[in-house]
Amino acid sequence: MSAELPADAAAGSLTDAETWSVEELDAAYQRALAALDAVDSEILATAGEASLGAAAAAVSAGTAARNETPPSAETPASAPEENPPLSAAQVIEACLFVGGTALTAGRLAALLKGDYTAQFVEETIDALNRRYRTEGRPYEVRLGEGGYRLVLKEEYERLRHKVFGLGPREVRLSQEALEVLAAVAYHQPVSEAGLAELGKPHAGPTLRQLLRRDLLAVQRETSDPKTPLYVTTPRFLSLFGLGSLDELPRPETLLYK
């Protein structure tokens, strides 16, 4: 099971996203905001950690201050615009939330329906993640197999398991998946070609399964960005009761053939 937000929170699919109107995107964005706020409230109320409480209080105080500040007597309050235009960041955020699938930077740039580039999308996503960190949000936009997703941060995994009843004991892996996972764990970062050299020549489908379950993640080297390298995730450590990769058992010889 991946660390994505619950599937039932998604309000639609991007199958026909290219035909979405501004009004539909705006409605999707408003649903996304409401659902994200609900996730924040649930997590911050349940976590009980001092740092999380402080972050929640700071965000709440800022919101309350904005809501309670009366308009200046010298400047009459203007009526809010009925349909304010969505910013590029809002469209990207809404698409990632309601899409239900990973989206590449190029696909998101196309959905913006303007003179936008993949680099612009990547920079906007970086800005969104900085804002999420500043506001103490429990989720982030993460690049993985197939593109970008809006996912829950790793440190909230145990809490998500508690809320939705999904724990490590429910994970079932085939012998093949366990062998590929072990190969990656001991040789990471490793490419699919590297796994073939280790005796797993047809690991592609299994790698994708492990990526979906958030047991593996993808890294890319600057020198060769087109070749994905596979590494284990914090969830892998949690599932196998490891504090770090240093705690992996070290047999003298590992045979995968």
Describe this structure in words.
The protein is mostly helical. It has two domains: 7-161, Orthogonal Bundle (Arc Repressor Mutant, subunit A); 173-247, Arc Repressor Mutant, subunit A, CATH 1.10.10.10. The protein has helices at residues 22-47, 50-68, 88-98, 105-111, 118-135, 157-164, 175-187, 192-197, 204-212, 234-239; strands spanning 139-144, 147-152, 216-221, 224-232. The strands form two sheets. It has a two-stranded antiparallel sheet. It has a two-stranded antiparallel sheet with strand order 3-4. Residues 1-19, 42-69, 165-169 and 252-257 have low confidence and may be disordered.
Task: Summarize this entry quickly.
This protein is mostly helical. The chain has two domains: 7-161, Arc Repressor Mutant, subunit A (Orthogonal Bundle), CATH 1.10.10; 173-247, Arc Repressor Mutant, subunit A (Orthogonal Bundle), CATH 1.10.10.10.
Low-confidence stretches: 1-19, 42-69, 165-169, 252-257
- Secondary-structure element sequence? HHHHHEEHHHHEEH
Radius of gyration: 21 Å
CATH topology label of the largest domain: Arc Repressor Mutant, subunit A
Beta-strand fraction estimate: 5-15%
Protein structure class: mainly alpha
Query: Helical residue percent?
Result: 40-55%
Shape by Cα distribution: globular
Per CATH, the class of the largest domain reads: Mainly Alpha
Oligomer: single chain
**For the record, what is the CATH homologous superfamily label of the largest domain?**
Winged helix-like DNA-binding domain superfamily/Winged helix DNA-binding domain
CA distance, first residue to last residue = 28 Å
**Number of E-type strands:** 4
In round numbers, the mean pLDDT is 71
Number of helix segments?
A: 10
Arrangement of strands in the largest sheet: 1-2
What profile does the largest beta sheet have?
Answer: 2 strands, antiparallel
CATH-derived architecture of the largest domain: Orthogonal Bundle
Number of domains: 2
